[in-house]
């Protein structure tokens, strides 16, 4: 049987690539795609078995591109569903070309230029304020792109802010590790599959993930909670429709865990709501979610079931 | 009495500036601020009577900076409340230096460079595809900044994509009008005041707005609906809390019209929900909203009333 194939948001050594390696291991075939919509299209067209896309960051909130593609205004991805999730803690390192700094050197004053993604400057303000006041900064399209640029320079003494994963991929020295202000900054990725594919399933993904952890599958707690994603549309001028829709979740014993709304692109002030919910029991959840969808179809427009998967969040409250 | 002062998100001739002129008229003192947080701080510090900030676009969705400042994780803006809203339709024009093109000229082939905000390229794709294939594009920080640059050039034959308002402000010729793909693209602005200020109120704003329309205030329909904004926090690991909170709105006869969630910045996967709601009756709404808040305080954390104002949306459904 061919290798399991997984697409991620490129370039190589991006945080999405790291999430793909953590979730699927290095024995899967991992294929970068340049955009979110390319990753969704790859799953819809069954070019790959799975895609892994960022969905939500603990500091910055929802990833709007992913929400819009799940909302799927043009019905371009109608067979794409969520079958898993993966949490990745975002750590940043200061990286330089191999050997140009003595091991353990703490004096960065000879570094003349820094490269990273605009968001990473803001995530490392304390470290940058302490060591890099006034040093030239160059924005790049991704942290791993910055690491790549630094790895290819021959004359400048520049550095990149990127992950340990990017350092290893591009063969860079790590001058300082965990330089981010908030060491708990975490991104939740969703794993997508095509419902018509026989090469992918929720169970298959969980089996791959468990193997990759190098733990026997029996180590997964039996009482793991499920998560479900359902979308529907409500017009702003239909009084009570949103509350009625949300009540349906409760009447089926589903807890609402998140609600996002996006413009439907059908008309102004017409929204798609994307609701994540959980059953309070330890059952599979999918059957209940299907019941919720059937009832939602009475009070909403274009209601769609977008998948059931196993909750991977290790919460202090659990 | 001193002029009413209003701050808006700069630079001069921005869409926020245009919204401020439409809502407050030219007799108010209009003051640009460089950032969203500066505009909120100006209201909190009573440096101005009002601020007008973009809240939601009919195509792109919520403006996250405004949501985060209303969510107010650090309690920096605790006296800031919403007292009004204003809808602005976003129209784009092709603008050039006065006199360098003959009036009515439809041949743009001598234009060598275009300036606009990155979002505006995407909003004018059809027009640009028809007339400007392969022409150099320069991103600028705002559409009005592009208009300013073009107005100051002396040698180049460049053009900017910006509003009619920016054309008039910077003294530019309008070569083509309404070049946007979607003529209904609309931004909703919120009007903010300080609850401790005696110089501002919901009634004062509505009076100013009505005067500025050059209609007598009695022309405002008596049955205008209200809108209310309330924020609260729910932990992801508190099953049922979100549904319970949303049920409270229904039990007070409040319709949910929008729900946004943002990371609380207190802990990972801990959210602030910002809920807009409407009473079904024609009353003021504020008293009911206060009752909702009192009940919400039983099941949520840090619940806050963020204002009541008159719904300005002219919907086909009304």
From TrEMBL, chains A, B:
PROSITE patterns: ACT (PS51671), PREPHENATE_DEHYDR_3 (PS51171). GO terms for cellular component: cytoplasm. Its EC number is 4.2.1.51. The keyword Amino-acid biosynthesis applies. It is an enzyme of class 4 (lyase). The keyword Lipid metabolism does not apply. It catalyses: prephenate + H(+) = 3-phenylpyruvate + CO2 + H2O. InterPro entries: ACT-like_dom_sf (IPR045865), ACT_dom (IPR002912), Chor_mutase/pphenate_deHydtase (IPR008242), Preph_deHydtase (IPR001086). It holds the Pfam family PDT. GO terms for molecular function: prephenate dehydratase activity. Residues 230-310 form the ACT domain. Keywords: Amino-acid biosynthesis, Aromatic amino acid biosynthesis, Lyase, Phenylalanine biosynthesis. Gene3D superfamilies: 3.30.70.260, Periplasmic binding protein-like II (3.40.190.10). One of its GO terms (biological process) is L-phenylalanine biosynthetic process. Pathway: Amino-acid biosynthesis; L-phenylalanine biosynthesis; phenylpyruvate from prephenate: step 1/1. Residues 5-194 form the Prephenate dehydratase domain. This is prephenate dehydratase.
């Amino acid at each position: 049987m061919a290798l399991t194939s997984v697409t991620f948001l490129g370039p190589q050594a991006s945080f999405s690539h790291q999430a793909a390696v953590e979730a699927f291991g290095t024995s899967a075939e991992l294929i970068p795609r340049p955009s979110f919509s390319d990753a969704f299209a790859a799953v819809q067209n069954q070019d790959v078995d799975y895609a892994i896309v960022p969905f939500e960051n603990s500091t910055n909130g929802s990833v709007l591109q992913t929400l819009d593609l799940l909302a799927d205004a043009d019905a371009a991805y109608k067979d794409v569903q969520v079958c898993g999730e993966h949490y990745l803690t975002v750590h940043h390192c200061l990286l330089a070309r191999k050997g140009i700094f003595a091991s353990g050197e703490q004096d960065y004053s000879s570094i003349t230029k820094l490269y990273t993604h605009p968001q990473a400057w803001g995530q490392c303000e304390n470290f940058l304020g302490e060591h890099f006041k006034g040093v030239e900064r160059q924005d790049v399209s991704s942290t791993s792109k910055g690491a790549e640029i630094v790895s290819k320079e021959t004359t400048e003494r520049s550095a990149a802010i990127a992950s340990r994963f990017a350092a290893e991929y591009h063969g860079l020295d790590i001058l300082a590790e965990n330089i981010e202000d908030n060491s708990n900054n975490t991104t939740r990725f969703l794993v997508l599959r095509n419902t018509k594919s026989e090469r992918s399933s929720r169970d298959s993904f969980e089996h791959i993930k468990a193997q990759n952890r190098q733990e026997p599958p029996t180590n997964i707690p039996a009482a793991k909670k499920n998560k479900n994603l359902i979308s529907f549309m409500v017009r702003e001028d239909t009084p009570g429709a949103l509350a009625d829709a949300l009540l349906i979740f409760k009447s089926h014993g589903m807890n609402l865990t998140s609600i996002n709304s996006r413009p439907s692109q059908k008309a102004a002030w017409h929204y798609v709501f994307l609701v994540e919910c959980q059953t309070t029991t330890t059952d599979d959840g999918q059957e209940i979610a299907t019941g919720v969808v059937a009832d939602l179809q009475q009070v909403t427009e274009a209601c769609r079931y977008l998948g059931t998967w196993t909750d991977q969040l290790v919460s202090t409250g659990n």
